[in-house]
Design brief:
Number of helices: 13
Radius of gyration: 21 Å
Bound molecules: pyridoxal-5'-phosphate
Helix content: 25-40%
Distance between the termini: 24 Å
Mean pLDDT: 98
Strand order of the largest sheet: 1-9-8-5-4-2-3
Number of strands: 15
Oligomer: single chain
Length: about 375
């Protein structure tokens, strides 16, 4: 089976991890801050807070922005469930903003109309979570301007988008947001096996997220409610978690970061080759918005009229050994969210997308032979 995504591990990665195993620290050592500084410098932001997953990063990002019961978080329906679940962890309510049918990202036009209506109804969201689907940046200038106008915080879910550029600026620089979150799951652009990072330009938000990832505990005397009892002393100031990243993971992350640009460049070569090889087929290829440089985490095609049914094409590809996938089932259609009150038809552009989307293999190690195999299988699978 040719998978839809795959990690790229070399001897450099193996050496970096094994070196940690024989070092003093397996956790809470120097590799985590080194990895945080490396990512922060690369994307041009002041702070990076490394955690054990992007899901954890989204959770502490919401908490640091004081999201709680009675508040509202908005995200895109076409995303992994974690983009919405982070709000539920905080006891907040969730709503969705439908996608732009061309980019598949949250539509700034729909958002503008929805914010206007929400203001009239006195129910503005506290946080908006735009998701850079497939690695293509959302229209952050427009989303950021709307958020500012209505006093709404923004957390970018950039799980797909480390290495992407928006108008020449790296995603993660938080130009139009409070916090940006990356994922380092093996199928993503770089990996730490499991892992994530929350980027921010705001020192207070960074300090709060650092505390929340480690039980809400501080050793900073300035933050304590009274003078320290002694050198052993620490205080728990709020309810936090153990969301820490290990030294092994951070060392792997540092080694992967040295190849970030090469990974994304290779993904672009594969995308360009797909664009040529698929040009004559009845499928819509990924549209790239002007001024964006995608990280190309995913290569999503959408079936046009006149092909075999979506389900049939998908099943034929899997049977042919092509590990296609579908990113994503709109979140509002999940039973958990249906129980909250969402129904089919609520977000029509997202549902139309879902009816035709297929993620075909895309990862740096995909060979030309394997890519040709994907294209040949697709050509056959599309025949009605
Ligand atoms: C992968 C992913 C997440 C969750 O990342 P983890 O590191 O697995 O927790 C969240 N949002 C999106 C859009 C993702 O693709």
């Amino acid at each position: 089976m040719i998978p839809y995504g795959h990690q790229d591990i070399t001897q450099i990665d193996i050496d970096a991890v094994t070196e940690v195993l024989t070092s003093e620290f397996l956790t809470q050592g120097p590799a985590v801050p080194r990895f945080e500084a490396m990512v922060a410098e690369r994307v041009g932001t002041a702070h990076g807070v490394a955690v054990n997953s992007a899901t954890s990063a989204l959770h502490i990002a919401c908490l640091a922005l004081d999201l709680g019961p009675g508040d509202l978080l908005w995200t895109s329906p076409v995303t992994f469930v974690a983009s919405a679940n982070c709000g539920r962890y905080c006891g907040a309510d969730i709503d969705f903003v439908d996608i732009d049918p061309r980019t598949y990202n949250m539509s700034a036009t729909v958002l503008a109309a929805k914010l206007q209506e929400a203001e009239a109804n006195g129910r503005l969201p506290k946080i908006i979570v735009p998701v850079h689907l497939t690695g293509q940046p959302c229209d952050m200038a427009a989303i950021g301007a709307l958020a500012k106008r209505y006093g709404v915080a923004v957390v970018e879910d950039a799980s797909h988008a480390i290495g992407a550029l928006d108008q020449g600026t790296p995603v993660g620089a938080c130009v139009h947001s409070d916090i940006t979150v990356f994922s380092f799951h093996p199928v993503k652009i770089i990996t730490t096996a499991e892992g994530g990072m929350a980027m921010t330009q705001n020192t207070d938000l960074a300090a709060r997220m650092e505390r929340l990832r480690s039980h809400g505990i501080t050793r900073d005397p300035d933050l304590m409610t009274h003078a320290s009892d002694g050198p052993w002393y620490y205080q728990q100031l709020e309810l936090g978690f153990n969301y820490r990243m290990t030294e092994l993971q951070a060392a792997l992350g540092c080694a992967q970061m040295t190849r970030l640009e090469a990974f994304v460049a290779r993904r672009h070569v594969i995308a360009d080759r797909y664009a040529t090889l698929l040009a004559d087929l009845p499928v819509t290829l990924p549209y790239q918005a002007p001024g964006t440089y995608s990280a190309y985490h995913l290569y999503v095609i959408n079936l046009q009229d006149g092909t075999a049914p979506h389900h049939t094409v998908f099943t034929r590809l899997r049977a042919a050994g092509i590990g296609v996938n579908l990113h994503y089932i709109p979140v509002h259609l999940q039973p958990y969210y249906a129980d909250i009150g969402f129904t089919p038809g609520d977000f029509p552009a997202s549902e139309t997308y879902y009816a035709g989307a297929i993620s075909i293999p895309m990862y740096p190690g995909l060979t030309e032979e394997a890519q040709d195999q994907v294209v040949a299988a697709l050509r056959t699978a599309l025949i009605p």
